[in-house]
## 1
Amino acid sequence: MKRENQNINLMTDFAFKRFFSTEPYKNNLIHFLNAVLPPYIGPVQDLTYLPTEQLGTSDTSKRLVFDVLCANPINDHIIVEMQKASQEFFKDRVIAYSSRHISESLEVGDRKYSFPKVITIVLVDFEIPELKGSDI
């Protein structure tokens, strides 16, 4: 029995996370990042996946769950988020996610504030009004 070609919609949460955030498919993420990031951080040779869930520092802090969170060998941290449906305050959410990751990376006693470079890539299937007409 001949098998028909099968397609997967990467704009679904399940497919996106499976295709980009699992170890067996790590090369997919590396190829994608190398299509986007070399002008900013150079080519990505390897990645380490980091835990995608960040709990808040208190009971009232919001829990964050990233689609993809990883680091390259020089400890640049890369967040990749995919959003299919438009959300009010989406830009603010992206800023909050990036900022939380930066602040959570500070270690006790570190007086230099030597946190990693954090790069956030957001793939959306809608227009963000605040960015309309920009080069971003």
## 2
Amino acid sequence: MGDFSEFRQHWRPLLAAFLGMGSALSLNSYILSIFAPYLIGEFGWTRSQWAMLGITQILIMFCMPVAGRLTDMFGVKPVAAVGAISFPLFLVAIATMNGNIYVYIAIYIGQTIVCSTTTATVYSRLVAASFSNRRGLALGICGSSPPLISAAAAPLITAFVEDHGWRAGYFSVAAFCAVCTVITLLLIPRSKPAGSNRGEAVTDRAIGVYRKIFAMPVFWIILAAVFLSNLPFSLAISQLKLVVLDQGLSDATAAMLVSTFAIGSIVGRVFSGAALDYLPANVIAAICFGLPFIGLLMLASPFNGVAVVTVAILLVGLSFGGEGDIVPYLVTRYFGISVFSTVLGLLTAAIGSAMAIGNGVLGLTLDATGSFDLYLLVASAGAFVGSGLFLLLGRTRFQPATSLPNG
């Protein structure tokens, strides 16, 4: 079974990544759900105006590859510090704004761009570089930080906002994130980026690295696999409760199943991470990303009982959680640490584009049929093909890399 001495040896980078990811941009989606009713109520914003925030998520597709490349070139600490220090300041800016929706959107856009340096693309490099025997479990622990911190803090924040107002609530969250930032930056060890070469021009080095990555067939297999496998998650991000209600279940049951999804995502993250340390990574990826194929078919079926829908939602949740461990683990296995964040940033962009395209296709199918069923079938097909592609990585021609040169 192996020992767990790595956790004693490398607790500092693991704790730094855990706190860093749980106190910055990844926390945003949970914050928005808490503060949205108060902002809309006080300023009279319409739901369509609020929905414009979703458009800014497109920026992630461009920001993540940049953040990833900068991390591999200059190291985690200086890159993460930019976003980690800025995130509380953006929260303070929101707390002191005048209520103009376009001012809020401008702040949100700036926050998304600058604080993209505080996501898993950056912080998980600490864990991937520090752990070897228990890398999967360590990545699982690190990736579970945003939902765990949010689950613990959400009731406290909600109660605080109800008593003191949303502005005070934003100030309190900013203070919490600022404290976590200080601790995180103190814990991150100083290290030289792998494969750096000061004598080589930055532009030339970047072009050379991307050329090598794009020349590897394994990159395109993983890219296609994660793209297709993430089509179901466009439902999980914004439509989950509506999908459950479409099954004919009550609002109370729908709310319970949304919580079931969240619990499943946390469990899936930890269990898939632990499994990666003992079983072939491509097999774990195929199984995990194949779960929505079953779950979505169950939702599209005429069987709409609570038990059936619960199992279906749980399967999708387990897969959604497992993604946060599996993709970084595959990157370390097939590309090495020297270009870890560069490759992970590209794959994260593919994940974001899959969700964006998925939302577009979902809108078209809803307009055409008035039901989620058609998209459930489309997304399940994507999950089936995408999960199957991971099995190709077991072929002998796709041998894991010890390291891909960083220039």
## 3
Amino acid sequence: MKQIVSQMRRCVEDYRMIQAGDRIAVGLSGGKDSVVTLCALAKLREFYPQPFTLEAITVDMTGGETDFTPLADLCRGLEVPFHLVTTHIFEIIFDHRREKNPCSLCAKMRRGALHEAMAQRGLTKVALGHHREDAVETFFMSLFYEGRLSCFQPVTYLDRTGITQIRPLLYSTEGQTRSAVARNHLPVVKNPCPADGATKRQETKELIQALSQRYPKLKEYAFSAMQRLPLPEWGVLPREEE
């Protein structure tokens, strides 16, 4: 976790993700990446020169059928306010609409529920738990399925909602987040999505893993290339003078 916090601070500074007085919501899905993002930000909060506060928001897509008590307990221990938003997203997508390709609609509905909860609390900045592999996979998915060089941005301002998305975990790897969860005995709530593991992202992940057997630095080089091209908003910003 110490290494992840160090990487997070560098990422935050490279892209000027946090300003003094920010009230940051953490999108706490219960997966390992969002849990590690919350814990690392809570640690960073203790010494970062730009003071900020945290709140955690969990969107329950199962209509109350999932137990998120472990997340509430974790937030209590970190002294981070925890908010649970109960929705019926899964019921709408899988039972009523019976979507054959549910991921896009699900993401849109989850994002809408999260942003609404933020608006109710006057929060305008949200930290998402995307790590380095997520960025590399998104880059290759855009190439394979859309024929363009693209990826989400480290910092994204959504003008329709006035919300700024930040991704402070981008300099850490999936292996590091997995190890941090195991070493620190952090709670993880299993994703109950019926489509989990059967998506285009999973196919891309498996392809990259296979290629990495032959080209061990593939993910590292791809991530570096994304910063050097750079993709829109991926260029590292010059450091501000102290």
